[in-house]
Amino acid sequence: SVNHEGIAVDDIHIYDNNLPIYDGPTMTSAVTQTITGGNSWINFISGGKIIASIKPNNQNMGNTDVQAYINTAAVRNYNGQYYHNRNITVKPANEKLPDSVGLRIYFPDSESESLINATGCASCTKPVSAYDLGISKYSDSLNQFENGLLTDDTLGTWNFIPSSLVVKVPYLNGYYVECKTNNFSEFWLNSGGPGKVHSLRAEFLDFTAKKATGNNVQLDWTLKSENNIVRYEIEVARGNTDYQAGRFSKIGEVNSAGNTNLPRSYAYLDVESNKSQVRYYRLKVIYNDGGFTYSITRSVVFYDGITLLVYPNPSNGIFNLVYQLPAGETLSLQIYDAGGKLIKRQNNTASGFVEKQIFDFSKQIYPKGMYLFRLNIGDQQQVFKVIKQ
Questions:
Q1: Which pLDDT tens digit goes with each residue over 356-369?
Q2: Which of 219, 165, 3, 188 is nearest to 82 (CA)?
Q3: For position 191, what pLDDT does the model report?
Q4: Is the dihedral of CA 306, 274, 250, 247 positive or negative?
């Protein structure tokens, strides 16, 4: 500056500023857009103010709901992290997409400043600036739990998109963050805690339950990282009745080895005697502040409990095949008509849970009379004779 005069400008952003950022209260209902394809940004707007934008990457998402949830009390923290006053849900009709879509979340600078200056938790981490923000993403098979609340995010799956993979762009009196995603629905803004790799809850890379010698069950799990976890409690539901009623019992626990930014694996052997039918396992993750979350549930089927059923019989041509087999087991199915002609063949890979498949032989091309369902599981075979009336 002494020898040379001039100015240098970096990080220039040009954007359409016709839409201010949504700065109202928590939305009581979602904004819906029908996304059927294309590759342009589609804006979600409430009261003339922008909440989020989606770039569908030429994919049909169907009717897509976006809703913003705004915290106006003190900045919140959980498991050693402060997190942003704004989070959103995105719920497309078609939740399983073959490729990722672009997502932008808009927020005013005042919310970032509140997060940066948050107090009250001396051990909690927080971003130095909005450019440190990553995204914690929660997905649940039950949409009622994708409701903007962190407290009931216990049964689904968490993922963290680190700051390095999230684009931050100044926009009017705030910013938008941009990332790619192919699953939904709750999105939370946080910095990732120590090492900037932690979601707001535990992120499992893997959790398996498999039969071992002596009718025991071997449980193995790996987490992407650990932050403020005290222990893992192993819970089991003994049979379908208990599982459907949500009756899980604690059978053991494993203490956490402490905080780490690296993947870490654990194991537990269920040696309980007299196992039969099917057992459902899950992990209850206990945090040092008393909070908890659950892993995905895994099942182990014992052969004395295998379920195979074809019903109704007789019927008008609609037959239901219900089965429950060990996860990964192949079910081979052949269906023959009364003359012995093969009319359908397929292989199903079992999930370990109760599954149902519907076969429609009600059309006139399938005459009334007897049909034979031949099911093969490994070296076992079972045959069902059914009647179309």
A1: 999 999 988 899 99
A2: 188
A3: 94
A4: positive
Which stretches does DSSP call E strand in 98-166? 101-108, 134-139, 157-161
Distance CA 231, CA 257 (A): 9
Whole-model pTM: value is 0.77
- Here the tokens at position 334 are 């052949």
Candidates 178, 202, 180, 181; CA nearest to 189 is 178
Q: How far is CA 274 from CA 93, 111, 160, 250, 279, in A?
A: 44, 56, 40, 17, 11
Query: Is the peptide bond preceding residue 162 cis, with omega within 30 degrees of 0?
Result: no
Tell me the helix, strand and coil percentages in the chain, rounded to 5.
Answer: 10, 50, 45
Q: pLDDT tens across 64-116, in order?
A: 999 999 999 999 998 889 999 999 999 999 988 899 999 999 999 999 999 99
Distance, CA of 340 to CA of 374 (rounded, Å): 12
Tokens 């976890």 sit on residue: 229
* Residue 142: count of CB within 10 angstroms of its CB: 9
Distance CA 309, CA 323 (A): 6
**d(C-alpha 382, C-alpha 389), whole Å:** 23
pLDDT at 154: 80
